[in-house]
Write a structure and sequence with these properties.
With 165 residues, this protein is α+β, with helices and mostly antiparallel strands. It contains six helices and five strands, in the order αβαβαβαββαα.
Length: 165
């Protein structure tokens, strides 16, 4: 069913709102996926709090205008599904990467984690970005380790002095 101009404006507005809250965006071609496979992709995305949208490329191009994802518009051709993730930049890429392992028909075209479009070869590195909890955990470990080393050193000096006395 074709959309009238008001319907198209509403779609662009809705997609623009999603983009405004997103830290990363992935565009993938879904040609050859069945309805059941697309439903499974949507379910997995929803579990990971990733927004998945299928919209006409011309409407997606309008929605990304003036956003950090504007450079991706050149890659919008063919039947595309778009995924958006919020604060955790690697989530959308991780969902598509995991889904593509079992479904070769899903082919990632481009992705972005802010400024500039990246090609599909960067999917693995973006998907490997740590989650928020992992990043905080690593940061705390890095901050804690120097203090722990100092404590171990002071204890060793104390033990040496006690043995010498």
């Amino acid at each position: 069913m074709a959309l009238n101009i008001e319907g198209k404006k509403a779609v662009v507005e809705e997609l623009s709102a999603i983009i405004a809250e997103s830290g990363s965006m992935v565009a993938a071609e879904y040609r050859g996926l069945t309805v059941e496979q697309m439903t499974n992709l949507r379910i997995k995305a929803r579990e990971e709090k990733v927004t998945v949208q299928v919209v006409k490329n011309t409407l997606a191009k309008r929605a990304v205008q003036g956003t950090p994802f504007e450079d991706m518009a050149d890659t919008f051709s063919g039947p595309l599904v778009f995924a958006f993730s919020g604060e955790e930049l690697g989530k959308a890429a991780r969902v598509f990467k995991d889904f593509a392992k079992d479904n070769e028909a899903l082919v990632v075209r481009s992705l972005s984690i802010g400024e500039g479009a990246l090609d599909a070869s960067h999917l693995t590195s973006i998907a490997a970005l740590p989650t928020y909890d992992e990043a905080v955990s690593k940061l705390l470990f890095v901050m804690k380790e120097p203090v722990a080393k100092l404590t171990r050193g002071l204890n060793a000096v104390k033990e040496q002095k006690e043995e010498a006395a």
